[in-house]
C-alpha cells in the first residue's frame, strides 16, 4: 500500500513500454517488505532536461536506459569511479551515479569461465551496454573487438578503452572470437563458432537468434533476462542494501509469462 513513507523509484528511457524493470523491482520490494514503488518514465529527448530535474529531486533512485545512460551524467553531482571509466550511468541514488550493468556482466561471466586472459571478445554495438560489456571483459583480460554501424562511435569507445590501458580495436567484420557479445536490438547474424561464451543483451525474446545458435553448437550463454535481473538487483543493493536472489525473480517472471 502506498503511503507518505513510500519511496519512489523508476526507470527513465524513451519508447520503453516493453520494460520489465517495474515488474522485477516491485516484486522484489514486496518480497523483502520494502515500502517503495517502481515506475517507468517514458521521456522524449526534447523533454528530458525539464523532466529529469524533477525526477531526481523526488525519487530515491532511478535507472536509465536507451538513450540516456550517457546524457544523465551532466545532471548529477558525482559518479563513482566505474561509471566515470565507462562514461555511462544506469543507476542513480539521489544525484550520485553508478553503473550496475558492468558488475552484472563481470560477475555472470566469472561464474562461467575461470580465466579470459589473452582471449578475444567481439562486441556488437557501441552504446551504454557495449561500454559496460567492453570494460567488464577488458578487466577480465580480453582484447576487445568492436563492430558498430557507426564506425565513429566504435572508434570513440575503442579510444576510451585503450586510454585505461586495455587492448581494443574496431573491425568491420564479425570475426569469430572466444566471447561473442550482442548489445544491439537488431543485429546481423553474428558468428559464434569457436566461442566459449555468448552474451546477449536483448531479452525479448529470451531465445534470440544468437542464443539459439549458441545452444545448437553447445556453447554456454548469458541471456538478456539474466543480465537485466542481475543489474536490477545490484541497483537495489545501492538503494536499500538488500535484494532478493536472482533465481527468485527469474522464477516469478517465467511463472507470470512476462518473458518468453
TrEMBL record:
Its EC number is 1.1.1.25. InterPro entries: Aminoacid_DH-like_N_sf (IPR046346), NAD(P)-bd_dom_sf (IPR036291), Shikimate_DH-bd_N (IPR013708), Shikimate_DH_fam (IPR022893), Shikm_DH/Glu-tRNA_Rdtase (IPR006151). GO terms for biological process: amino acid biosynthetic process; aromatic amino acid family biosynthetic process; chorismate biosynthetic process; shikimate metabolic process. Keywords: Amino-acid biosynthesis, Aromatic amino acid biosynthesis, NADP, Oxidoreductase. Pathway: Metabolic intermediate biosynthesis; chorismate biosynthesis; chorismate from D-erythrose 4-phosphate and phosphoenolpyruvate: step 4/7. NADP(+) binds at residues 81, 125-129, 148-153, 201, 224. It is an enzyme of class 1 (oxidoreductase). Transmembrane segments: none annotated. Residues 108-184 form the Quinate/shikimate 5-dehydrogenase/glutamyl-tRNA reductase domain. Residues 11-91 form the Shikimate dehydrogenase substrate binding N-terminal domain. It catalyses: shikimate + NADP(+) = 3-dehydroshikimate + NADPH + H(+). SUPFAM superfamilies: Aminoacid dehydrogenase-like, N-terminal domain, NAD(P)-binding Rossmann-fold domains. The active site is at residue 69. Shikimate binds at residues 19-21, 65, 90, 101, 203, 231. GO terms for molecular function: shikimate 3-dehydrogenase (NADP+) activity. Homodimer. Involved in the biosynthesis of the chorismate, which leads to the biosynthesis of aromatic amino acids. Catalyzes the reversible NADPH linked reduction of 3-dehydroshikimate (DHSA) to yield shikimate (SA). Belongs to the shikimate dehydrogenase family. This is Shikimate dehydrogenase (NADP(+)). It comes from Sulfuracidifex tepidarius.
